[in-house]
Amino acid sequence: MRFRYIAVDGPIGVGKTTLAGILSKLFDARVVLEPVKSNPFLPLFYTDRKRYAFQTQVSFLIARYQQQKELEQQDLFGKGIITDYFFARDRIFAHINLSEDELSIYEKVYALLNPRVIKPDLVIYMQADVDILLDRIGKRGVEYEKGIDGQYLEELVKVYNDFFFYYNETALLVVNTSEIDIENNEEDLTNLVKEIRRIKSGTHYYIPLGSRKK
């Protein structure tokens, strides 16, 4: 594994955890999953976003920060690490979920924590069309995710795209997954892994036709 630390990210339902798990096995790396289940406000957020947005966001920020600090103290220089989130994703969600006053407070806290977090060697940004995301979210059947609608996802996708359009802090691979199925199609997965292996630095775009066109 060329990169010691790979972070996989993208909007809800894009397949971050699936890809992180697959890559951890292929590269014999440790997989670290986002602490989603430990956030008590998340189910409430999807029932009343305005009321619970700030609590949800701050809870995520603290949990992700604590997890990232633990990574720094563990086996980053031994066995490689692959995460199913990128620390900066917290700020992406904050900008669409928080009010202006809430965001002002959040940004001050984020500015204190972000410089202390280790940066990945490679970020894999997974994209997909909104209808594909809705379909994948529906198939995984998480009860509180039933409150996610297309409008929210469209806004989220736009903010993600804007963020990564200007991102240049590490090597970046942008993968459009709308037409591939890396979990069930070996060829799709093999082609994606080849793309990952050839990256050294800079930003790369991978837009495969994939198995869904066949």
Summarize the SSE layout with pairings.
Blueprint: E1 5-9, H1 16-26, E2 30-32, H2 42-45, H3 49-73, E3 81-83, H4 89-97, H5 100-113, E4 122-127, H6 130-140, H7 150-166, E5 171-176, H8 186-198, E6 203-206
Parallel strand pairs: 1-3, 1-4, 2-3, 4-5, 5-6
Helix pairs in contact: 3-4, 3-5, 4-7, 6-7
Low-confidence sequence ranges: none
Percent helix range: 40-55%
| Average pLDDT figure | 91
- Largest β-sheet summary: 6 strands, parallel
- State the strand order across the main sheet: 2-3-1-4-5-6
Strand proportion, as a percent range, falls in 5-15%
Number of strands: 6
Morphology call: globular
**Broad structural category:** alpha/beta
Q: What's the multimeric state?
A: single chain
Total of helices: 8
Distance between termini? 31 Å
Secondary-structure element order, N to C: EHEHHEHHEHHEHE
What is Rg? 17 Å
Structure description:
49% of the residues lie in helices and 13% in strands. It has 214 residues and is α/β, with parallel strands linked by helices. It starts with a strand and ends in an 8-residue tail after the last strand.
Entry summary:
The chain contains eight helices and six strands. By secondary structure, the protein is of the alpha/beta class.
Label this structure with key terms.
214 residues; alpha/beta; six-stranded parallel β-sheet; 8 helices
